Backbone:
DNA sequence: ACGGTGCCCTGGCCGC
DNA sequence: TGCGGCCAGGGCACCG
């Protein structure tokens, strides 16, 4: 499940390979339906200026004024070698070595499309996406403001990409565990102090995972075909029934925002129900 | 604007 | 072993 650390790992591998290359030709696997793989032919003849990342999206500006947008979804893999199965897109590139880029995506949750630069209206999530967690603009105070007034569970809000970019199901659970916050806590109820803890946890877990080339559960591979090694360091995700690494209590699995959710019932206290105060009763 | 629901898609896993 | 059924989940349309 590629989230920010996995996408950043891929970006670092793609940048030296793709920067400066010209897209000679694009090919789409037959019968691939619309919006997930749109406008590819627009890229033909254009040069890749850079390989950038925004949240979990890869953004490749092209010198003709368009932008190649790639999202790996759950199972997307970019490779310089022919994966043979489930190849959705092939790019022919200028240059001497590795002149083909393959996009493999068994479950078709990924995206691979070309739009006029900064035409984010075609992708709503990019439009309302919060700050990059590893840039200085992501501060604890700013984070607190973005959570203010929100009554939904903190987990659901983090998954929306609105308060901060790039978190998915794994790193949300990890960050909430590290900050000792229950996933159902109404986001706007987090104190400034708790929000600062969460802010710190988000940055720490993402940086640690990038240093380990990300987490491989099933499909994720780096461009070179390697697995990420952060899997072994996960403290919450996938550890239901196993002992908490802080207090030893058994971690629990539940469902929050339609996602499998892991937390420690002792370290991450259940929020008290709202209401029972003020004019409501 | 906000929060909640259901859908997409298919490899892999589980139970019988 | 074979088969049916179900789960995983990011983004997004849609609803109230």
Residues:
């Amino acid at each position: 499940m590629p989230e920010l650390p996995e996408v950043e790992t891929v970006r670092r591998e793609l940048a030296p390979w793709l920067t400066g290359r010209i897209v000679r030709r694009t090919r789409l696997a037959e019968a691939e339906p619309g919006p997930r793989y749109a406008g590819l032919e627009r890229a033909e003849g254009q040069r890749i200026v850079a390989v950038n990342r925004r949240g979990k999206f890869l953004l490749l500006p092209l010198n003709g004024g368009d932008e190649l947008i790639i999202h790996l979804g759950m199972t997307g893999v970019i490779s310089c070698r022919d994966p043979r199965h489930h190849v959705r897109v092939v790019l022919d590139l200028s240059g001497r070595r590795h002149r083909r880029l393959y996009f493999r995506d068994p479950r078709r949750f990924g995206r691979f499309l070309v739009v006029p630069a900064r035409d984010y209206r075609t992708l709503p999530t990019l439009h309302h996406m919060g700050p990059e967690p590893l840039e200085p603009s992501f501060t604890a105070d700013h984070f607190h403001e973005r959570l203010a007034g929100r009554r939904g569970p903190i987990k659901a809000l983090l998954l929306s990409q609105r308060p901060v970019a790039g978190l998915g199901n794994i790193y949300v659970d990890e960050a909430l565990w590290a900050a000792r916050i229950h996933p159902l806590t109404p986001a706007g109820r987090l104190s400034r102090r708790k929000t600062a803890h969460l802010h710190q946890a988000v940055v720490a877990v993402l940086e640690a995972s990038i240093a380990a080339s990300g987490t491989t559960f099933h499909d994720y591979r780096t461009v070179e075909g390697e697995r990420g090694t952060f899997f072994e360091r996960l403290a919450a995700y996938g550890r239901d029934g196993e002992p908490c690494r802080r207090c030893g209590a058994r971690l629990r699995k539940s469902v929050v925002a339609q996602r499998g959710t892991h937390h420690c019932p002792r370290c991450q206290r259940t929020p008290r129900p709202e209401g029972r105060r003020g004019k409501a009763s």
Q: What stands out?
A: Residues 73-75, 86, 106-109, 150-152, 156, 218-219, 257-258 of chain A lie near DNA strand B (CB under 10 Å from a C1'). The first helix of chain A runs from residue 4 to 18. Residues 275-281 of chain A have pLDDT under 50 and may be disordered.
